[in-house]
């Protein structure tokens, strides 16, 4: 393929509300990076960016939000990363578009993973929006916003200027959506047809937007990928006063206002020192959304807002999630069925026979030992979320990404494994290209991608690459099982997941504590 690149004064020039922006042209796309969509003082609500004279150079990615600790590169074959300069001035976004015209294309706004503490809009190689924009004829936007203490630290006890500091990161996302509403038409996008989508913490941010009144009307649809996470990303409830006082004491500060100006690295180190004791005591430790008048809280506990009940959603997860990050100790190629069943008996005890029978009914194509890699941490909370949301009047489509990947001789899909398939980016990462059925990865990529693009365009993921896929109802979850031989199953794993949660839940707690410290996102 011959690549075509152009960068000059007129190649990709747009006039936004704040001023002119210049990007570049590459392989038929107009690409703009690091566009400021807001500005804000630490812990304060975002405001629109200051207008500028001249032309803003959008040929460079912008700063990403500082982290609470230094990331250690690991697991790059599973989740290939980019690491990028960090700064609190991180309210910027990136745009990929097929044309600066009046085509009014669907807009997809990507919210990155990493919980509410880490990650960035460009962190994963597979987040690149070029192929999605080009192949889908859509406008793709990815957003950086404040995270951790910068984005989620309730200081409302210290004055009205901090009234929603516990959700400043969410307010940044809402500010980015306002920027999209006000400016995306000059990038060839339709401000009335915006789909917010995200994975892991990014998917959770979609569910948070649905519970945030200020976001109403700024998006039309949502896609939640591995983002209904239950206790792993539970709301940060209660007052932040104890945390603020602990930080002020640790840093030798006299008042809360001084937390605004203390060096971020000192603030982060102090937080990491005081957090364990507060967490042990059940106190507020921030770094997650804070229920209040601006964010009404996790919906299965606080109720779904009727104002967003009719927003169409796609909600799903992957087969293995966190269970599949490490190599399996079992060789599926050499173990006999009897040996696998004996191992299940050893691990699961008296529940093994019942669980295996349920597993064979739900996943008849899989080997018995695969049961030990089946996720229930994500899928468990997802099932009631889908049921209750489907009963609110809107349309919701459920899926499971079930395609094994050729790492360590073949492993169940892990947390983030589906992202390259959704973005049409399997050629940017290594793992889809191992020794497996000819054309399988490409077929699964087309199934995932076509479903997302159809949903973004029409509010319905139906397309020629997949079987008929009806939306869910309160009593029937019609789940598209995606693995190249995709099919739709109804309530197929509900009893299995409930039983597996009872048996394996207590054993997972220690593993989840370690994964919180070192999980990929």
Strand order across the largest sheet: 1-4-5-7-9-8-10-11-12-13-14-15
Global Rg? 23 Å
CA-to-CA gap between the ends? 32 Å
Give the ordered list of helices and strands. Answer: EEEEEEEEHEHHEHEHHHEHHHEHHEEH
Q: Assembly type of the shown chains?
A: single chain
Tell me the major beta sheet: 12 strands, mixed
**Quick one: overall form?**
globular
What portion of residues is helical?
25-40%
Overall mean confidence score, pLDDT = 94
Instruction: Please tally the β strands and state the result.
Output: 15
Number of helices: 13
Record the SSE blueprint.
Layout lengths: L4 E2 L6 E3 L4 E3 L1 E3 L2 E8 L18 E3 L34 E6 L7 E7 L18 H7 L2 E5 L4 H4 L16 H16 L5 E11 L1 H10 L10 E5 L15 H11 L12 H17 L18 H4 L10 E6 L18 H12 L3 H11 L16 H12 L5 E6 L17 H4 L17 H19 L19 E5 L4 E4 L3 H25 L3
Parallel strand pairs: 3-6, 8-9, 8-10, 10-11, 11-12, 12-13, 13-14
Antiparallel strand pairs: 1-4, 2-3, 4-5, 5-7, 7-9, 14-15
Helix pairs in contact: 5-6, 9-13
Would you kindly provide a written description of the structure presented here, covering whatever features stand out?
The chain is α/β, with parallel strands linked by helices and 521 residues long. The protein has helices at 130-136, 148-151, 168-183, 201-210, 241-251, 264-280, 299-302, 337-348, 352-362, 379-390, 419-422, 440-458, 494-518; strands at 5-6, 13-15, 20-22, 24-26, 29-36, 55-57, 92-97, 105-111, 139-143, 189-199, 221-225, 313-318, 396-401, 478-482, 487-490. The strands form two sheets. A twelve-stranded mixed beta sheet has the order 1-4-5-7-9-8-10-11-12-13-14-15, sandwiched between helices. A three-stranded mixed beta sheet has the order 2-3-6, with no helix packed on it. Helix 5 crosses helix 6 and helix 9 packs across helix 13 (494-518). The radius of gyration is 23 Å and the shape is globular. The protein starts with a strand and ends with a helix.
